[in-house]
Amino acid sequence: KFYLNVTSIPPLQILNATRGAWDYFHKLAGCHAGDRVSGLSKLKQYFRRFGYITTAATGNFTDDFDDVLESAIRIYQKNFDLKVTGELDAATLRQIVLPRCGNSDVIDGSSDMNAGKGFQKTAMTAGAARIRTTKR
Amino acid sequence: YSFFPGKPRWPARKRDLIYAFVPQNNLTEDVKRVFSRAFDRWANVTPLRFTRSGSLLRADIVIGFFSGDHGDGEPFDGAMGTLAHASSPPTGMFHLDGDEDWLISDGGGENRRILSVTSLVDLESVAVHEIGHLLGLGHSSVKDAIMYPTIAGGDRKVELAKDDIEGIQHLYGGNPDGTASSENSSRGRETSGGAE
């Protein structure tokens, strides 16, 4: 639907604003390495979707908070100038659930998102099996 | 700013790019004007020019709204979530999620919060971002940059930031007819030059 201006939006539309597609991830707050929590596999799919996990697996992720996930979180935190903890802290989750562009942040296993700010090119490291990425 | 691997860009012979809308969307002029404004923002700071065409055959860039799986391997996910995606040069595919609620007002040139809580997405903000991809820019870590990957519902962010301008001018150079450059735009003021 297209709305010409803010006043044309029905009040109910504002009151019943659709929950974010990824609000579900808020329940993963506080998870850290070694945990097994239902929903972590979906978070891995999210990170795979945006290039942070480059494994060739086609969605068969486990709910384990493993090295692959921790590595993905660290790279994500660097890219979004968050404190790099490797954990699912509140600031990281607030960023993850925001609506966003569907293009990947990490392409072909490396990320230049921070390149303009003097960071070194961030290679995908420990645990992130570098096999191939999907070319659109 | 960042680029796609290999730094693809439109070739030097292609400085006048033609865009067209998927006819099945039956978009109104109000909607099409939003894209025109978004293209202008990039034209103001580059030697590139953008012209709308009614013919897909002539178009370098094709714009369409789609829902769910639309055949490019990157299905949309309903309201919110992913809002749009675009290809790197010289492919020219620009897809937007047809399940979003889009605001198409001419909200002015300034970045601002339109509503405090809403699932409404400012179309021009997303269009300016995706055109950056179509021209060769990747995502940026600079929060004020257009090429920052996320945008909150109800936010309007349409002003090119210094980071965006530096990135695009690295690929194409500045606008020979204008004065806009990264030097005179500290953090994305409305840039002058070109038609303005």
- Distance between the amino and carboxyl termini of chain A: 27 Å
Oligomer: heterodimer
What fraction strand of chain A?
under 5%
Tally the helices of chain A: 4
Average pLDDT figure of chain B: 88
- Strand arrangement within the widest β-sheet of chain A reads 2-3
Give the low-confidence spans of chain A: 118-136
Could you tell me the radius of gyration of chain A in angstroms? 17 Å
Q: What is the overall shape of chain A?
A: globular
Number of helices of chain B: 3
Shape by Cα distribution of chain B: globular
Helix share bin of chain B: 10-25%
Q: List the uncertain runs of chain B.
A: 183-196
- Give the number of DSSP strands of chain A: 3
SSE run of chain A: EHHHHEE
Strand content of chain B: 15-25%
Largest sheet of chain A: 2 strands, antiparallel
- Structural category of chain B is alpha/beta
Order of helices and strands of chain B: EHEEEEEEEHEH
The rounded Rg of chain B comes to 16 Å
Descriptive report:
The complex is a heterodimer of chains A (136) and B (196). With 136 residues, chain A is mainly alpha-helical. Chain A contains four helices and three strands. In chain A, strands 2-3 form a two-stranded antiparallel ribbon. Chain A is globular and about 50 Å long. By secondary structure, chain B is an alpha/beta fold. Chain B is built from three helices and nine strands, in the order E-H-E-E-E-E-E-E-E-H-E-H. Chain B has helices at 29-43, 123-135, 162-172, and strands spanning 16-21, 49-52, 61-66, 84-86, 93-97, 101-103, 112-113, 120-122, 155-156. In chain B, the strands form three sheets. A five-stranded mixed sheet of chain B has the order 2-1-3-5-4, with helices on one face. In chain B, helix 1 packs across helix 2 (123-135). The two termini of chain B are 25 Å apart. At the A-B interface, strand 1 and strand 2 of A face strand 4, strand 6, helix 2 and helix 3 of B.
